[in-house]
Amino acid sequence: VQLVESGGGSVQAGGSLRLSCAASGYTYNVCSMGWFRQAPGKEREGVAAIRRYSGTTFYADFVKGRFTISRDNAKNTLYLQLNRLKTEDTAMYYCAYGGTWLFVGSYNYWGQGTQVTVS
């Protein structure tokens, strides 16, 4: 499985971005996908996760009500809508496939990341 993120950028506080993660390879046995982020000097943390077939979602408390995870199975693409961005949301954002909810170490496949900078 190969994952490629896009959609990051620089935005002012209160603004919005939409991240995408295009997957290729054999993904049909992947049950969960997620978005994670890592700020300089900090550990990677879970942001949001979604079950591939049921669509059940799970969010970290710090993004509830602001971020929305979704997927398009036909396009093999995962999305993260980021609204009401805060400066503390500045980080490299990664998508990941094949893990369990927001447990970083459980995911098998990772993208290269896309930078989100909020000023």
Question: What can you see in these coordinates?
Answer:
It is a single chain. The chain is an all-beta fold. The model has no long low-confidence stretch (mean pLDDT 94). The strands form 2 sheets. Strands 2, 4, 5, 6, 9, 10 and 11 form a 7-stranded mixed sheet that branches. The protein has strands at residues 2-6, 9-11, 17-24, 32-38, 45-51, 57-59, 67-72, 77-82, 91-97, 109-110, 114-118.
Care to give the gist of this entry?
This protein is an all-beta fold and 119 residues long. Helix content is 0%, strand content 50%. It starts with a strand and ends with a strand.
Structure class:
mainly beta
How would you describe the shape? globular
Strand proportion: over 45%
Number of distinct helices: 0
Question: Alpha-carbon distance between the termini?
Answer: 34 Å
Mean pLDDT: 94
Low-confidence stretches: none
Specify the oligomeric state: single chain
Please tag this protein with its features.
119 residues, mainly beta, 11 strands
